[in-house]
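Sorry, any thoughts here?
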Amino acid sequence: MKAVIQRVSRASVSVDGEVVGEIGLGALILLGVMSDDTSDEVAWMASKAAELRFFEDDEGKMNLSLLDLAERGLAPGVLVVSQFTLAADGRKGRRPSFDRAASPGDAEPLYEEFCARLDALGLRVERGKFGALMEVSLVNHGPATFVLDRSSASNRIDR
């Protein structure tokens, strides 16, 4: 599982010109599900995303997580957008291979589980539309962008 997490002032996702998800202060998470991912990867990624300290504290240091902001009553939003292209392998040729991406039937339940885990932690979760052609708009605050990678095929990073 791979995630690109961007600290945003605001973000939205539209399908066919209609906004389907929108947040103010918070995080836009582009989530790529790999073919060998399980609930273990989902649990790790959701916990890591919620606890990653990438918001500034009163001294201007990145010491606050989404959960910390929620505890302070700032109600951060999380916009989660499925993005199978994060599974791309471009090492050979000029066309990326998506062999590592989970099939839609396998990926969608894990995507939904990821969103549900964030929601269960008390975060306000908005979603893109799984499998749709989406237009994502954001104002990256910082900019601050982080790439997290956790798959059963890679070395596991423990908390």
User: Anything to note?
Assistant: Residues 153-159 have pLDDT under 50 and may be disordered. The first strand starts at residue 2 and ends at 15.
